[in-house]
Amino acid sequence: MKNYGRLTLPTDLDVIDETIALKESLGADAIRDCDGTQMPEELLNLDAKVYATYYTTRKDNEWALANPEEIQQEYLITDRYTARETSLTIELMKGFHTEQLKPNFIDDPKEWWEVIDRTTGDIVPVDKWDYSEEKGTVTIQTMPYHVYTVSFLAFLIWDPVHMYNFITNDWKDAPHQLTYDVRQPKTQAYVKEKLKKFCEEHPHVDVIRFTTFFHQFTLTFDDRKREKFVEWFGYSASVSPYILRKFEKWAGYKFRPEFIVDQGYHNSLFRVPSKEFKDFIDFQQQEVCHLAKELVDIVHSYGKEAMMFLGDHWIGTEPYGPYFETIGLDAVVGSVGDGVTMRMISDIKGVKYTEGRLLPYFFPDVFCEGGDPIGEAHTNWLKARRAILRSPLDRIGYGGYLKLALEWPGFIDTIRHVIDEFRDIHETIQGTQAYVSPFKVAILNCWGANRRWMNNQVHHAIWYREIYSYVGIIECLSGMPIDIDFINFEDVKNGALDQYKVVINAGAQYTSWSGAQNWIDEDVVTRVRQWVDQGGGFIGVGDPTAYQHQGQFFQLSDVLGVDKEIGFTLSHDKYNEVNSKHFLLEDIEDTIDFGEGMDGIYAHGENYQILSQYHGYAQLVTNTYGKGRSVYLAGLPYSPQNCRLLLRTIYWAAGKESEMKKFYVSNVNTEVAAFEKVGKIAVINNTTDSLSTDLYIQGQKVETLDLEPMELRWVEI
């Protein structure tokens, strides 16, 4: 049936009849429960797959309380405190929420904690500090006016996601759910038996949706129940003495808390990862994937499917890591906040199907006075749709309280349009792939393929002022006709550049995304220079190749044709003039949005052309370098116009301008995806306004299309 399937709906005890009616109306073929809802018995015999949200690490406080030593743990670091005398007492939990975290005094603090003199960077010997379990403090013998921190293990006595949902949804009576460590032998055996029992007692459940497996991403609250530290990619809460002893045996060296807390940065994804942290990630992925496979095998033994939610306790199951496919999952589901997060899910290999939870979630923080769930649904679909045309999800669905969606006027009709269009895409393209550039483009950073579609993000699809100018690049790319890879600096040294026509390096100075000290690696810079000199294209955004060294800040300033003024070259005169006539700007009518932009960028050399500048500093510069080309952009937030600017930038950097209009539309607010095998072209309007656009095929204009707001129009090739 045309209007049936590929859709999962949430349900609850208070919407039984409504669920049945909506299932028929929207053509849903699966129903699910959520955190805070229950699956009604009356719906188990519907003609639909039944998903059961399954928690391996929580919803069993009795077990957690009976085994307090096997509750999940997290490495924390105190604030920095200045000693004014020869002794300093630090209160461990100051600034943390005592309902979420509790210092671990069960395992010897002298073995697993670390006190550091942050003035010198020296570890304070264990005989120079003592702790008080009763007071929750550490007292240190100090040097006056030196600064000190304490890194310590703490038990997660309230599951962070349950705490988040509890606060967001204003739950009153639900008990705080403790979170236990499935990696430890006693709990591991218990959890396996519990899973078997669940499968036996729920014969009507078709899909076990693990949420997720064992280790929560880092989500730490402060003493006012506000988020204190969030790292969706963080490993700080994946530790315990049991795990760390295994790591030491595996790695062959002693573990330090500093490998995790990292001076207080908690190994943010923006940090250039240390060897020790990369070792720990690799170890955790091996162990987690191995154990996850055992649980998946149990599910399969009962004839059920195993699905993983890409969120919550996903740490160690990284879908682009080297061990993920060994788990044997049937599916992955995740939240689709935009095109990037859509691609993060849909590009996953090693599963039978992928599924996306579209926004908004049916939560009271959106479905409330002043909320705009219809507007959020439109924005979400416009971003997701252009990426779906490049790498389709197999299924979509929604989450939260269905009653809220049903009571919001016009909302169901809004998502009905989304669902029908999603099915129409699948029916039309018939499993074929859209046309992409005849050359490959690489994103170069410290993480490479292991963190595909994760660039410059703190918590996926969350807006931050400091990064939207960089996240916009991969948001644009998520729906563009570009063959894209993600590579790291080791790949460069191993000869990977030969596969690519264009390389993009984008991010703030000294971050993992720009590359920091990797740009003073002789092998890296000489290989990149040679590759561009022989015809490669290099695109830098923000602080590309940035590292102060040998009289320059951008280490490939010769390639880029620009450098950055950081105060050392103010005595050097700079004569920069704008010439905005260029291939890059031929479609661009409105003022270019460079986001936060970048101060201090000035052009130099003999082969540059400044296309845009602000207050005397450059924002958009092209350069030629031997047979190759480069482009510098001060920033590139997502917008339809910036997608077009990036498309033109890539084709120009590749020296392939003449090939750009093989399938092309003139209006920057529209895009095109050509499916040559089925003879169809999708033309999409990425705005909520009506507009016209000219369609080009093989460089020739074939027709003018008048598109309705948000329209997807299929055109015969």
From TrEMBL:
Gene Ontology MF, one: 1,3-beta-galactosyl-N-acetylhexosamine phosphorylase activity
Enzyme Commission code(s) on record: 2.4.1.211
All residue ranges annotated as the Lacto-N-biose phosphorylase-like N-terminal TIM barrel domain in the record: 5-436
Residues in Lacto-N-biose phosphorylase central domain copies: 440-657
Keyword Glycosyltransferase found: yes
UniProt keyword Transferase, yes or no: yes
A Pfam family per the record: LBP_M
InterPro entries per record: Class_I_gatase-like, Glyco_hydro_b, Ig-like_fold, Lact_bio_phlase-like_N, Lacto-N-biose_phosphorylase, LBP_C, LBP_M
Ranges where the Lacto-N-biose phosphorylase C-terminal domain occurs: 663-714
Keywords: Glycosyltransferase, Transferase
Protein name: 1,3-beta-galactosyl-N-acetylhexosamine phosphorylase
Source taxonomy: Bacteria, Bacillati, Bacillota, Erysipelotrichia, Erysipelotrichales
